[in-house]
Design goal:
379 residues, TIM Barrel, eight-stranded mixed β-sheet, alpha/beta
């Protein structure tokens, strides 16, 4: 009987983000591990592997598709109210014990993580996104850096069709992969999970590549937003939150920082769920170091004003939210505060268009076979 690995090894193509080494080894540049991979072995991610001195990478499938409000990603300074058509493959270069997408991200690493791949084409994904009224198409659910070649193939079709493109990522990048993505990715969300290298090593990574990636993303003019899932007893000390916020402010005080509430998930069931008070404390730390845009997530209605966007200059209310719902919108057509005229950093439409949804949903109630025919059919 074919294993998931056997199935995935039928959906591959030669990668572009690698170099040849001696003895048929290769070095992969898709993520910060920069794995030197011997012949016949995969990298840390389990989905990029060396066969005979050629690096093969995932291609031509998804592990899942979903339509989300763009606020769920979360992007709060990019096309508020837009529908984000989200797709993901399988695998990850980290192994976070609290991963909410573990069924896709930990496939091939955890026997309980089973997400059968669905064969698709870039054209089919884009066609489906357009039919649903999406403005943005997002590579997410697994770690998109390790499937960058496939994401770029999809994004080329998406750009030609007028869609905005985005990555939702752990940020464990390299200079090579960011240069590869830059022509095709508009928006980039990074999970900055901790500011302690020991914590990152518990998750299977290192802190420094994530910090380097955040700096490079800002310098390269991706639209960047950063999320920290605040976990009691793991990364919620005042000292760690202060150092993290100071780092973001040193890159740019205009980077939106989302502090979001942990809830028990996957293998991490010991810590308490994060309280609203903890998020408010984190936000206050961020304000003291000079961050202009701080948001608190996962606890709608419990975090005072921290779901809303206010002008950093005059504090005028610009966007009012409840969870993923846009309740009021006051930005001018050119993305400025209507009260003082200050420009608000972000990627804005000229006006708030109708919000298609304030809740995630699966694209229509297709059976798997029907969805397969829609996503793979040619025009």
């Amino acid at each position: 009987m074919a294993t998931l690995r056997d199935v995935l090894h039928e959906s591959i193509r030669e990668g572009e983000l690698y170099e040849a080494l001696d003895h048929k080894r290769v070095r992969c540049f898709a993520c910060g591990h920069c794995c030197p991979i011997p012949d016949g072995q995969p990298g840390v991610c389990k989905v990029r592997y060396n066969q005979g001195g050629t690096l093969y990478v995932p291609w031509g499938y998804v592990g899942g598709v979903q339509c989300d409000p763009i606020e769920k990603k979360p992007f709060f300074h990019a096309f508020p109210g837009a529908l984000a058509y989200s797709f993901g493959m399988l695998g990850c270069d980290l192994h976070c014990g609290y991963c909410q997408n573990w069924v896709t991200s930990q496939a091939l690493r955890d026997p309980a993580a089973v997400a059968p791949p669905l064969q698709v084409t870039p054209e089919g994904l884009v066609r489906e996104a357009l039919s649903l009224g999406a403005k943005v198409i997002v590579s997410t659910y697994n770690e998109p850096l390790i499937t960058s070649e496939w994401a770029v193939a999809v994004f080329k079709e998406a750009r030609a069709a007028g869609l905005v493109t985005a990555f939702v990522s752990n940020g464990n990048g390299t200079p090579q992969v960011l240069e590869y993505l830059r022509p095709w990715v508009d928006l980039y969300k990074v999970d900055l999970k901790s500011f302690d290298d020991r914590h990152y090593r518990q998750l299977g990574g290192r802190l420094q590549p994530i910090l380097d990636t955040i700096r490079r993303l800002h310098e390269m003019d991706f639209w960047l937003e950063v999320v920290t899932l605040v976990i009691p007893g793991f990364n919620d000390s005042d000292d760690e939150l202060l150092r993290l916020a100071e780092f973001l402010a040193s890159v740019s005080p205009d980077i939106p920082w989302h502090v979001t509430a942990f809830h028990k998930d996957y293998k991490m069931t010991d810590p308490d769920n994060t309280s609203a008070e903890t998020l408010l404390r984190a936000a206050e730390i961020g304000k003291k170091v000079g961050l202009h845009y701080i948001y608190a997530g996962n606890l709608p209605g419990e975090v005072d004003d921290l779901e809303n966007t206010r002008c950093a200059n005059c504090s005028e209310l610009l966007i009012e939210r409840y969870g993923y719902l846009i309740k009021r919108y006051y930005l001018t057509p050119n993305g400025c505060c209507p009260s003082c005229g200050s420009s608000v950093p972000g990627r804005w439409d000229r006006s708030l268009k109708r919000q298609i949804t304030s809740h995630p949903f699966t694209p229509r109630p297709h059976t798997r076979s029907n969805l397969l025919s829609i996503l793979t059919s040619q025009q």
